[in-house]
Amino acid sequence: MCRRCRAVQLTDEVPREKMFHDEYPFRTSSSAWMSSHFAKVAAQLVDTLRSPDPFVVEIGCNDGTMLETFAERGIRHLGIDPAANLVAEAGARGVLARPGFFEPATAAEIRAEHGPAEVVYAANTMCHIPYLDEIFAGLDALLGDDGILVFEDPYLGDVLRLGSYDQLYDEHFYLFSATSVACIAESHGFALIDVEHIGVHGGELRYTVGRRDRRRPTPAVDRWIAGEASEGVHDLARLASFAAEIGERRDRLRRALQDERAAGRSIAGYAATAKSATVLNYCGIGPDLLPVIYDTTPEKQGRLTPGSGIPVEPFPTGPDGYPDTFLLFAWNHAEEIMAKEQEFVARGGRWIRYVPDVLVG
Question: Hey, what CATH class is 8-234 in?
Answer without folding.
Answer: alpha beta
